[in-house]
Design goal:
Elements (H helix, E strand, L loop, with lengths): L15 E9 L6 H13 L2 E7 L10 H12 L5 E6 L4 H7 L2 E8 L2 H6 L1 H12 L12 E6 L9 H9 L6 H5 L5 H18 L1
Parallel strand pairs: 1-2, 1-4, 2-3, 4-5
Helix pairs in contact: 2-8
Length: about 200
């Protein structure tokens, strides 16, 4: 099998607009994340959903747990492949997999404006190695907004409900926010949190 062609800057791969990469920390995966993935899977021939790591953050769930969340919750989508990204640049991972589109999920226009810097950084790190916006291997960022009924849902809300002491009916409030496979793992984490707080 021939080695993949090297693109500008030594990053292998040739991208297509029919393949997309949806990266997020998924800490934990929520029903809003699943909704974005389902819609993106309809729009692209192949969708890579990537549990990504930000070294500046501390996470509630392990990479293995996140990958299990994704596989169990997105298994009904035949054109979705779940992957983990623990190093390197997201745009380079996208290019290696032939993805010309990066999916970013947003709850509101305010979210999009807050992440303009990240979009600009993704553009810069490509242009720095000769991959400009008119280059066929440029990876574009495309926003997907949460459904109106899910605009309040976030991973940070779930984690807050898990950790704030004295929350009444905690389990009932968390359950609607996450897919079933995630909820089971959260129950295990809640037992550990309650033991630590006791």
């Amino acid at each position: 099998m021939p080695a993949p062609a090297q693109g500008p800057g030594g990053v292998e791969g040739t991208v297509t607009q029919s393949v997309a990469l949806y990266p997020a920390s998924f800490d934990p995966l929520t029903v809003a994340h699943v909704s974005v993935a389902e819609r993106a899977a309809r729009d692209f021939s192949t969708l890579f959903v990537a549990a990504a790591v930000n070294p500046a953050k501390n996470y509630e769930f392990t990479m293995d747990e996140k990958l299990n969340f994704l596989r169990a919750s997105l298994g009904h989508l035949d054109n979705v492949e779940v992957i983990g990204l623990e190093d390197g640049l997201t745009v380079d991972h996208a290019r290696r997999r032939g993805a010309g589109i990066l999916i970013r999920g947003f709850r509101s226009v305010a979210d999009f404006l807050a992440e303009e810097e990240l979009v600009a950084q993704n553009r810069f790190v490509q242009e720095a190695v000769g991959i400009t916006a008119d280059h066929p291997d440029f990876v574009e960022t495309v926003p997907y907004y949460s459904r109106a009924t899910q605009g309040h849902i976030s991973s940070s809300l779930v984690r807050g409900l898990m950790h704030v002491p004295g929350v009444e009916r905690r389990v009932e409030r968390i359950k609607p926010l996450v897919p079933g496979p995630v909820f089971g793992t959260i129950l295990t984490h809640l037992e550990e949190i309650e033991q630590a707080q006791a």
